[in-house]
Design a protein that fits this description.
CATH superfamily: Glutaconate Coenzyme A-transferase
Shape: globular
CATH architecture: 3-Layer(aba) Sandwich
Number of strands: 11
Order of helices and strands: HEHEHEHEHEHEEEEHEEHHH
Number of domains: 1
Number of helices: 10
């Protein structure tokens, strides 16, 4: 079987301008931040980003890499509205398509199953239909004749997700309380890149955890990146919680100043070193 391990730079080096990129996780929880930071080190731009948005969206929006965002929200959880997303949105830096959370999920399901849409009740009678006039409805062909929203497939050129552990073949495991639909992002994409806290042998994945924790299957994964603390500053339970102090710094620091201090280095090691230095300064 194929060894799919690669570096973060190798993974994002396979992306290109204008792609539709799905980013897993949820808000400020288990986001593939090392992959997002690697993406920022490239010149890739004009992206359509599909995400249950958090600081992944904030970073890419502030850096001017997003042409269109498809999302139900953009939040830092403990800070309700992602501030760098908000600033970019207020200056009309990108096009926004806001979907109901359930419509978003079923859009991923449709794409994962290579269907053009799936009928859902979410959205009927709400303003989501008004602000997205391109959305269509369909009627059941059976006796009930019920009207549904035709949630469009959210097909992705590439997906980026972060998990607790993975093997070299691409099987990915979550050990926290929530899968965050990372499997759907991978299955909805033409290519998928999994970063993880640790790469282990395949047999180790089920040695101390249930088979149900094997969220992502190797058949949907293109590359595996070992990235310890690769979700920072978001949480990656049980490996670590959210770095609330650093997240507050991110949220309150002007983008240029934050990027210069923490994102101008040549690699992920430089970022994590800068973060450690900052924490030392706070003591």
């Amino acid at each position: 079987m194929t060894d799919k391990t690669m570096s973060a730079d190798d993974a994002v080096g396979r992306l290109a301008d204008g792609m539709t990129v799905g980013i897993g996780g949820w808000g400020s929880r288990r986001k593939p931040m090392a992959l997002v930071r690697a993406l920022l080190r490239t010149g890739i731009t004009d992206l359509t980003v599909v995400s249950y948005g958090g600081p992944d969206v904030g970073l890419l929006a502030a850096a001017g890499r997003i042409r269109r965002l498809i999302a139900p929200f953009a939040t830092l959880d403990s800070i309700p509205l992602e501030p760098h997303f908000r600033a970019a949105r207020e200056r009309a830096a990108f096009e926004m398509t806001e979907l109901d959370e359930a419509m978003f999920m079923w859009g991923l399901h449709a794409a994962a199953n290579r269907l053009p849409f799936l009928p859902v009740r979410a959205g009927i009678g709400s303003d989501v239909m008004r602000v997205n006039p391109w959305l269509k409805t369909v009627r059941s062909p059976y006796e009930d004749g019920e009207e549904f929203v035709a949630a469009p497939a959210l097909r992705l050129d590439a997906a980026l997700v972060h998990l607790n552990r993975a093997d070299r073949l691409g099987n990915g495991q979550y050990l926290g309380p929530d899968p965050y639909f990372d499997d759907l992002f991978c299955e909805a994409a033409d290519t998928a890149y999994v970063s993880c806290e640790q790469i282990v042998e395949s047999a180790e994945l089920t040695k101390d955890a249930a088979p149900q924790t094997l969220l992502v299957s190797r058949h949907s994964v293109t590359g595996v990146v070992e990235a310890p603390h690769g979700a920072h500053f978001t949480s990656c339970v049980p490996d670590y919680g959210r770095d609330e102090a650093f997240q507050k710094l991110y949220a309150t620091t002007p983008w240029g100043e934050f990027a210069e201090r923490f994102l101008s280095g040549p690699d992920e090691h430089a970022y994590q070193s800068a973060v450690r230095t900052w924490h030392e300064e706070q003591k």
